[in-house]
Amino acid sequence: MPRHELTVVYDGECGICEALKQRAEALDARGRLRFVAYQGADLDALVPGLTPAEASRAVIAVTPGGRAWEGARAFFKAMEHLPGFWGKIGSVGAVPVVSWLAGPAYRLVAARRGQISRWLGLSQCRIVPDRRT
């Protein structure tokens, strides 16, 4: 059984999140990533103090040693573990200044992920639309 180098805590009820997870799993032939939907995870065991509300807002990437990132940086840290082109994109994106610059775009998509999932026809999306946006 492979030893996972990074645990990715994601929203298992989000169509975009689920589609990206499935794509990453298909590319991750070496089994470097482990995906855990926050809805069924022992969040405190993964990141002490992490609440469901916090995990619902952004993807979290956690090393076996407990180092954690969230949002755009976590997304790119996960991509870093993929082979080829995607790993190179992840390495560039994981640079703090680059992930900081990508942060607003990440937050915009994350806040509207339910609506975007529906637009893309991702049937696994169970997020209720936010009527305020």
Strand-helix topology:
Blueprint: E1 6-10, H1 15-27, E2 33-37, H2 43-46, H3 52-57, E3 60-62, E4 68-70, H4 71-80, H5 84-93, H6 96-111, H7 113-119
Parallel strand pairs: 1-2
Antiparallel strand pairs: 1-3, 3-4
Helix pairs in contact: 4-5, 4-6
- SSE order, one letter for each helix or strand: EHEHHEEHHHH
Q: Which structural class is indicated by helix and strand composition?
A: alpha+beta
Strand content is 5-15%
Let me know the largest β-sheet. Answer: 4 strands, mixed
How many structural domains can be distinguished in the coordinates? 1
Give structural attributes:
globular, single chain, 4-stranded mixed sheet, alpha+beta, 133 residues
Give your account of this protein's structure.
It is a single chain. The protein has one domain. The C terminus is likely disordered. It is α+β, with helices and mostly antiparallel strands. Strand 1, helix 1 and strand 2 form a beta-alpha-beta unit. The protein has 7 helices and 4 strands, in the order βαβααββαααα.
How would you briefly describe this protein structure?
The protein has seven helices and four strands, in the order βαβααββαααα.
